[in-house]
Write a structure and sequence with these properties.
By secondary structure, this protein is of the alpha/beta class. Helix content is 38%, strand content 17%. The strands form 2 sheets. It has an 8-stranded parallel sheet, with helices on both faces. The chain is globular.
């Protein structure tokens, strides 16, 4: 399988800070070599621009998302799988816009691994934190102006969205989620074997799946280097198994890894674990 690595070294609109340090950290410990050893060919390594220009945060995020969308679309047109190294979960806006552009009328599903829902809107959010809104945004429920500027003119279809490992939802966010066709599984449900049926239902008829791996889906015992750790998460092995279940059902359209925060990863364990996740998953899947 051929991939295009896309480095997005941003924490929101701040270059090379916090989670924005993750792409360099992943590459420094040998991500590229691990992928190639597993039979993955890296066709190209791209990096989004360091300078987003002047303006308000949303203006800068729109430019960042547009750059990601362009690179994802180009990767797909080159018949490679875009693998996005984040950064935070706002990368999903650009990834979804790029896939929409490249895949045309073909629908794709979203498998969203995360401790948090990221399904807040401006109305439901208790904090106003923008990286708590990206999944709601790509589903057409939040940040309408940003979505428009990034070029996501047609939202992701909610009946093709599956969330895995979720265990920290704000009450208004939970009420909103439960009013939608989105399916979410907590770690216990994943552990109990409910993934296979949920995957079958949510991804029926899709041409491929965008796999979004926020590493805080993993329990902080194994993945401590994150900004917002939540106890009671999945093991790394359980995340790998669930991802393989997803990709046994539908081909991989794109993959994002987010939320590794090197300054909080005091012993380097989380960076190494993230490399394990990516290399093991990519070595065993097919793409579209």
């Amino acid at each position: 399988m051929e991939v295009t690595l896309i480095s997005v070294p941003y924490d929101q609109d701040q270059y090379g800070e916090g989670m924005g340090l993750a792409p360099a950290a992943l590459l420094e410990v040998g991500l590229a070599d691990r992928l190639e050893a597993g039979g993955v060919t890296i066709k190209e390594l791209k990096t989004v621009p360091e300078d987003l220009g002047q303006g308000e945060r949303l203006d800068r995020l729109a430019r960042l998302g547009s750059a990601v969308a362009d690179m994802v679309s180009e990767a797909r047109k080159d018949e490679t799988i875009p693998v996005i190294l984040g950064g935070d979960c706002l990368n999903a806006l650009g990834v979804s816009a790029g896939l929409r552009r490249a895949l045309g009328e073909r629908e794709f599903g979203v498998a969203w691994f995360d401790a948090h829902g990221d399904f807040n809107t401006e109305a439901t959010s208790l904090s106003g934190y923008l990286p708590g809104m990206p999944l709601a945004c790509v589903c057409g429920r939040a940040l309408a102006a940003l979505r428009r500027e990034v070029g996501l003119t047609r939202p992701v279809v909610e009946k093709h969205v599956l969330m895995l490992g979720v265990r920290d939802l704000d009450p208004p966010e939970k009420r909103l989620l439960e009013s939608t066709p989105v399916v979410y599984l907590n770690p216990g449900q994943v552990r109990a074997g409910e993934t296979k049926e949920a995957v079958r239902e949510q991804f029926e008829g899709v041409s491929g799946v965008y796999l979004h791996l926020d590493v805080d889906a993993v329990d902080p015992v194994e993945m401590p280097g994150v900004s917002f750790p939540v106890p009671g998460g999945m093991t790394i092995a359980e995340v790998m198994a669930a991802a393989r279940t997803v990709l046994d059902t539908a081909p991989l359209a794109a993959l994002t890894i987010t939320a590794v925060n090197p300054p909080k990863d005091v012993d380097g364990r989380s960076v190494e674990a993230a490399v394990d996740l990516l290399s093991e998953i990519l070595a065993s899947v097919k793409g579209i």
